[in-house]
Amino acid sequence: MASTGLSSSNSSSSSYDLSFKILLIGDSGVGKSSLLVTFISNSVEDLSPTIGVDFKIKLLTVGGKKLKLTIWDTAGQERFRTLTSSYYRGAQGIVLVYDVTRRETFTDLSDIWAKEVELYSTNQDCVKMLVGNKVDKESERVVSKEEGMTLAEELGSLFLECSARTRENVEQCFEELALKIMEVPSLLEEGSAVGKRNILKQKQVHHTSGGGCCS
Amino acid sequence: MEKKRVADDHEVEPAVPVRVDRFGFVKQEQNSAEGLCRSRSASEYEREERRIRKWRKMIGVGGSDWKHYIRRKPHVVKRRIRKGIPDCLRGLVWQLISGSRDLLLMNPGVYEQLVIYETSASELDIIRDISRTFPSHVFFRQRHGPGQRSLYNVLKAYSVFDRDVGYVQGMGFIAGLLLLYMSEEDAFWLLVALLKGAVHAPMEGLYLAGLPLVQQYLYQFDHLVKEHLPKLGEHFAQEMINPSMYASQWFITVFSYSFPFHLAIRIWDVFLYEGVRIVFKVGLALLKYCHDDLVLFHCCQTEVVSVSYNFVVLSLEPAHGSYALDLGLAYS
């Protein structure tokens, strides 16, 4: 039935060096959840609309570092902004998604979503990535790649065109974002603080025999 | 096999027969989970027949005896509903206990008017979500098929009927669930009964701008967790986990969104009769059910959420063979 956070369940005990929080935003139906599911698992399926928030965790190695990405997926419909706005807090990366076959989803990024980021993001240095999704529907395209690049420049963000359906550029999207985050000292520090804590916990688990990590 | 008509009337791909469970959802895998493709023994079948006879007697022809019965023996009704309404009578009983039947009778022609003559600002939003609502159910699978058309009509009609609410994602799952048990017009009036509060507190605040009722319920749920599951409540507080991370869809869709269907309809039986407190109770029961696993996990914030969330879901996944969630526990 609807999407769940299931695929992340196996990752909880693995170790990692850095941990980052990523947020996916954009209009309803642009393919935020699809991008995420395609990135996390290999399945490409039709998904239900996201109600409120959902999230998944992905462990991956980028630039020789083991990363844990916690990716928060948000509902695109306007009515849900009251629930989703609190999830901008502490995000090191924000992915702004539009659908290349629907112009209003593109204009809403500068009219609405970029303003939401300004308003709610607590990280001054937070890295943004602009993503034009559904490039597999080339014949229906109404937003050109050049327009995307221009907007990315205006927003000071990275830019990629993707297809969740064909998987084109999906991994690159998250990897490039992670690489860029690691280049920003303040974000790197935040990410490694959590990483260290994680390693500490792991050691504790090792030392206390059989009891789990809590007291 | 009462839902068979759905499967028979609207074959999606006649050439390739689709395997569906007894509720009409396309089967993904072979492994049998309880309630899905288990064949019933003769004694179970007889028991079910007896139950249906009892229910028929209780409601009378077309629901004529229902009001009388409910006034005389409310506790019997409550007990029987908690045991589950027979699937073949579910649609009718839902309309009786929600008060929607009365609304329908008092407003002849209104639904037709809303569907045919009015236009709604939400039409495009609704269309975009139609194929994303219960896409694995035979009734809703076919593009522009009867299922998708009915779902569109009900949602559009509601968005016109109450323009302040309009259409909010999540309403589609409620309407979809209802449409598996009743006609378009009946489903519409049941939606009205719920949102406008024919019998219980109105639900429209779950969908109005600012989602005020969602905020209120999440706040209350947070306190209930602290009160009834203090150890878990403290743990959640420490790890900065709040109910908006896992429970908003429980309230917004009354478990119709991502819950195993055979459990969702049992929850709906009781929800329609006893009101939203059942959503709180089931939510608390879920956390209680996963309590020990949830408290075990520390580590950084998001990990715990993921774990908590996943446990709730995992423990209900048929693949994990654990259908132990005791609805009796939930309602007590």
UniProtKB/TrEMBL annotation, chain A:
Entry membrane topology: Lipid-anchor
GO CC terms of this entry: plasma membrane
Matches recorded under InterPro entries: P-loop_NTPase, Rab, Small_GTP-bd, Small_GTPase
GO molecular function: GTP binding; GTPase activity
UniProt source species: Coffea arabica
Entry coiled-coil feature ranges: none
Family designation: Belongs to the small GTPase superfamily. Rab family.
PROSITE patterns the record matches: ARF, RAB, RAS, RHO
Name by which UniProt lists this protein: Ras-related protein RABC2a-like
Keyword vocabulary terms for this entry: GTP-binding, Nucleotide-binding
Domain of life: Eukaryota
CDD domains attached to this UniProt entry: Rab18
One of the GO biological process terms: protein transport
Gene3D superfamilies recorded: P-loop containing nucleotide triphosphate hydrolases (3.40.50.300)
Entry's localization field: Endomembrane system
TrEMBL record, chain B:
Parts forming coiled coils: none
Residue ranges occupied by any Rab-GAP TBC domain in the UniProt entry: 84-275
Domain of life (superkingdom): Eukaryota
InterPro entries to which the protein is assigned, alphabetical: Rab-GAP-TBC_dom, Rab-GAP_TBC_sf, Rab_GAP_TBC_domain
Pfam families xrefs: RabGAP-TBC
PANTHER family xrefs: GTPASE ACTIVATING PROTEIN AND CENTROSOME-ASSOCIATED, ISOFORM B (PTHR47219:SF9), RAB GTPASE-ACTIVATING PROTEIN 1-LIKE (PTHR47219)
Name of this protein: Uncharacterized protein isoform X3
Organism whose genome encodes this protein: Coffea arabica
Taxonomic lineage: Eukaryota, Viridiplantae, Streptophyta, Embryophyta, Tracheophyta
Name of the gene this protein is made from: LOC113733021
